[in-house]
Amino acid sequence: MSRSYKHIPCCKDSNTKGMKRLANKMVRKTFDIPSGNAYKKVFCSYNISDYKFFETFYSYMSWYKKYKYAKQYTYKELYRKWYKEYKMK
Length: 89
Hints:
Blueprint: E1 10-12, H1 16-29, E2 52-54, H2 57-65, H3 75-87
Antiparallel strand pairs: 1-2
């Protein structure tokens, strides 16, 4: 098992592959595309959803504590949860 970790804590959107596949299908099925960068006008690039979230542990902890319905984790459990989402590769 690798002991490496992300040096910048970030969490990426996990559903980008499906939206990119859908965009590719729409471009391939469109017949009236002139040469050049006109393929970008077929599918809006904002719908692909390449999101990336940067968050430190303390900001994550304050965000998580705001919600009353959230399970009350201990400090170590909450740190482990943040570490798993943001620091592990």
